């Protein structure tokens, strides 16, 4: 559906070159919700601008539905852009137009008749839950309602792709959750592929199927959200994950634990099915070892369970080593090193 093939984008500022996007290759399949996460300046917006054809790549190609959009004429670009809806952090609504007027705008541009426009606007107002606000102006709306108008407007021309540029970053947590729910509905009910950029891990966690982590213009890690989230390879990905999930006790507690002779701590990670099995107790009991859960949680991610426990083992060292080796065949287990972050 959207394919980045070894895409780079370099800006020239006087004598200085800024490599905003470097050799990015990514595939976003039809029907996916794909999130791109990165800190400020990572290159996320530039990547989006390459998809909605506001920028052309310096090298490589961007394919949308198998068409290389970097090679399209200005006229073809305008037509193809109608196939891509976009919503923004600051909503970008016309304050001088009513809610209905904002939603009607892209339809007017596309040359739809008055009758068609009225029917479509009513349908979209119902879809986003704003039927009563048709005649209001954006200034009379809350942030969440403004973003609903933004979504309705983006959907007006029935696009196949919706691009979300930090769409919930200006909203409070409760409103963010409502908007994310609406985006999920857009994806599920209308089959629209969603590409979103964000610096907020919880957005990725809540609705995305796939994620790509960007840093300094490069994609440093990408894949299915569950796999990436439960087994992050890159320290930047680990930082994002820690922003939503405290997976270790604080350093103070860890130091106190060791100072009081608490012994070695292990992080045990359970993914999916295995979470339902009493693996820890079965293995430890078999080898005459006890265990103590010091810290941890079991969470749900993409409808699968994911457990992260910090445990200590009590027993003879030889037996503990056997337990550790046996557990290694069933779950992820690693020693917790103090000062590891
Ligand atoms: N038109 C431009 N001219 C020159 N440099 C640019 C231009 N657009 C982006 N850049 C530079 O490219 C790099 C990536 O910027 P980009 O806006 O894509 O990052 P971002 O991850 O979206 O950051 P943010 O979340 O802060 O918007 C930055 O160093 C930025 O200054």
Automatic annotation (TrEMBL):
Residues of the ABC transporter domain: 2-241
Gene3D superfamilies: 3.30.70.260, P-loop containing nucleotide triphosphate hydrolases
Alphabetized SUPFAM superfamilies for the sequence: ACT-like, P-loop containing nucleoside triphosphate hydrolases
Entry-linked Pfam families: ABC_tran (PF00005), NIL (PF09383)
Keywords associated with the record: Amino-acid transport, ATP-binding, Cell membrane, Membrane, Nucleotide-binding, Translocase, Transport
GO molecular function: ATP binding; ATP hydrolysis activity
Gene Ontology CC: one annotated term: plasma membrane
Protein name per its UniProtKB record: Phosphate ABC transporter ATP-binding protein
The species this protein was found in: Oceanobacillus chungangensis
Lineage: Bacteria, Bacillati, Bacillota, Bacilli, Bacillales
């Amino acid at each position: 559906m959207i394919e980045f093939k070894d895409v780079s984008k370099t800006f020239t500022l006087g004598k200085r070159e800024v490599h905003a996007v470097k050799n990015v290759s990514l595939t976003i399949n039809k029907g996916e919700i794909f999130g791109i996460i990165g800190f400020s300046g990572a290159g996320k917006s530039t990547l989006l601008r390459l998809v909605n054809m506001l920028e052309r790549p310096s090298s490589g190609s961007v394919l949308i539905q198998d068409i290389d959009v970097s090679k399209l004429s200005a006229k073809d670009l305008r037509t193809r852009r109608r196939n891509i809806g976009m919503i923004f952090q600051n909503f970008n609504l016309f304050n001088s137009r009513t809610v209905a007027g904002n939603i009607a705008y892209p339809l007017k541009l596309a040359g739809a008749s008055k009758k068609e426009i009225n029917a479509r606007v009513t349908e979209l107002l119902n879809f986003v839950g704003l039927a009563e606000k048709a005649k209001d102006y954006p200034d009379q709306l809350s942030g969440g309602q403004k973003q609903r108008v933004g979504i309705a407007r983006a959907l007006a021309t029935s696009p196949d792709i919706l691009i979300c540029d930090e769409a919930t970053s200006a909203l409070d947590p409760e409103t963010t959750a409502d908007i994310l729910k609406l985006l999920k509905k857009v994806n599920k009910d209308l089959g629209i592929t969603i590409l979103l950029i964000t610096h907020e891990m919880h957005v990725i966690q809540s609705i995305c199927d796939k994620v790509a982590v960007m840093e300094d213009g490069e994609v440093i890690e990408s894949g299915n959200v569950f796999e990436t989230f439960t087994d992050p390879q890159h320290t930047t990905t680990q930082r994002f994950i820690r922003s939503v999930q405290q997976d270790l006790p604080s350093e103070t507690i860890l130091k106190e634990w060791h100072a009081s002779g608490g012994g070695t701590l292990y992080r045990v990670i359970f993914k999916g099915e295995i979470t339902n099995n009493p693996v820890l107790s079965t293995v430890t009991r078999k080898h005459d070892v006890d265990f103590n859960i010091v810290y941890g949680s079991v969470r749900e991610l993409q409808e699968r369970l994911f457990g992260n426990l910090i445990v200590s083992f009590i027993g003879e060292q030889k037996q503990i080593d056997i337990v550790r080796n046996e557990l290694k065949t069933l779950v992820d287990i690693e020693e917790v090193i103090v000062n590891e972050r």
